[in-house]
Design brief:
By secondary structure, the chain is of the alpha/beta class. It has a domain at 3-135: Rossmann fold (3-Layer(aba) Sandwich), CATH 3.40.50. Helix content is 44%, strand content 15%. The chain has helices at 11-22, 54-61, 78-91, 113-126, 140-143, 146-152, 169-180, 200-211, 222-231, 236-250, 260-265, 272-279, and strands spanning 3-6, 29-33, 45-48, 66-69, 96-102, 129-135, 155-157, 189-192, 217-219. The strands form two sheets. The protein has a seven-stranded parallel beta sheet, with helices on both faces. It has a two-stranded parallel sheet with strand order 7-9. Strand 1, helix 1 (11-22) and strand 2 (29-33) form a beta-alpha-beta unit. Helix 3 (78-91) packs parallel to helix 4 and helix 8 crosses helix 12. It is globular and about 55 Å long. The N and C termini lie far apart (41 Å). This is SDR family oxidoreductase.
Length: 280
C-alpha cells in the first residue's frame, strides 16, 4: 500500500510524514512535492507534483492507494488546482483521499472557505472514497507573532473578543496520520479544533504571565491592522488576508467546542500555554 502526501515538505506535511513513520509506515510513503531535492531530508520516496500540470500529476499518483491531500497554498488558485488533483486521482484509481479543509467551511465567513467548499464538492462528485478534515486555526498562526509582540510591548489584531479554538499544527498532523491509516474513517467529515478556546486578550495575558512583562492586546480596525502589517513588510494580499481572518474570528468563525480533534487523538489538544512556552 502506497500513501502519498501532498505538500510533504511544508510545515504540516513534514509533521504528517513524521507521524506516519512513527506508526510504522516508512516504506509505504511517497512525498508529492514541487522540489524532490528539498524532500531528500524526509528519507522517503519523492515524486514531482505540480498542481498546474495534469501530466505530472498523473505520473506522481501512479500506484498511490491513499492520498493525504493537504490543500495547496496559492489562495485564489486552489479550486482549479485541487480539481486537477482530484481528476488525476480518479484517472489513476486512487482508492481514498483525505483532504484538509476549513473549520465549518459551509458556514464560515472566512474568505478561505469558498475554495475549500468547492473542493469538498468536487470530492463528493468524483465517485472516489474520501474523508474531509475541516481543520481549525493553527495556534502557530498567532504564536508566530510572539517575538514581535515582546519587542514592541503589545499584541495587535482585529479579532475583538472572539474566541479561537486553535490547536498545535502537530495535533492536526497526528490526526491526519490516524485517519489515513484507519479505513473506518472513510466517508466522514470531521470538524477539528482545539479543546481550549481563548481570545487574543487571553493570549496576551498568558504571554505577559510567562515573560513577566506587561504585554497588552490592542484591538484595531481591520484597515489599520492591515496597514501595520504592510508597513512591516508583509505582501499586500497576506496583510489584508490576516486582518480579514481576524475579523472573521471576532464573529466566532474560529470557535468550536465539539472536541472532535481530541477524540480522534485520544488525548487533549496542546494547550495555548505550552505553545507559547515552546516559542519562548
Amino acid at each position: 500500500m502506497k500513501i502519498g502526501i501532498t505538500g510533504a515538505t511544508g510545515q504540516l506535511g513534514t509533521l504528517v510524514v513524521e507521524q506516519l513513520k512513527k506508526l510504522g509506515y516508512n516504506d509505504n510513503l511517497v512525498a508529492l512535492v514541487r522540489s524532490t531535492d528539498k524532500a531528500k531530508s524526509l528519507g522517503i520516496e519523492a515524486r514531482e507534483f505540480d498542481y498546474d500540470n495534469p501530466e505530472i500529476l498523473e505520473k506522481a499518483l501512479n500506484g498511490i492507494d491513499r492520498l493525504v491531500f493537504i490543500s495547496a497554498n496559492e489562495i485564489g488558485q486552489r479550486a482549479r488546482q485541487h480539481k486537477n488533483v482530484i481528476d488525476a486521482a480518479k484517472k489513476l484509481n486512487v482508492k481514498w483521499i483525505v483532504y484538509t479543509s476549513l473549520l465549518r467551511a459551509d458556514t464560515s465567513t472566512l474568505n478561505l472557505a469558498g475554495e475549500h467548499l468547492n473542493t469538498e464538492q468536487e470530492l463528493k462528485n468524483s465517485g472516489l472514497n474520501f474523508t474531509i478534515l475541516r481543520n481549525g486555526w493553527y495556534t502557530e498562526n498567532y504564536t508566530a507573532s510572539v517575538p514581535s509582540a515582546i519587542q514592541n510591548g503589545g499584541f495587535i489584531g482585529s479579532a475583538g473578543d472572539g474566541k479561537i479554538s486553535s490547536a498545535a499544527r502537530l495535533d492536526y498532523a497526528e490526526a491526519l496520520a490516524i485517519v489515513i491509516t484507519n479505513e473506518e474513517h472513510k466517508g466522514k467529515v470531521f470538524e477539528l479544533a482545539g479543546d481550549e478556546s481563548y481570545s487574543l486578550t487571553d493570549l496576551a495575558a498568558e504571554l505577559s504571565k510567562q515573560t513577566g512583562k506587561t504585554i497588552p492586546y490592542n484591538n484595531l480596525p481591520e484597515e489599520a491592522y492591515a496597514g501595520i502589517l504592510l508597513q512591516v513588510g508583509l505582501p499586500e494580499g497576506l496583510a489584508k488576508g490576516l486582518a480579514s481572518w481576524d475579523v472573521s474570528a471576532s464573529k466566532g468563525d474560529l470557535f468550536d467546542d465539539n472536541h472532535q480533534l481530541s477524540k480522534l487523538l485520544g488525548r487533549p489538544t496542546t494547550p495555548l500555554a505550552k505553545s507559547i512556552s515552546e516559542v519562548l
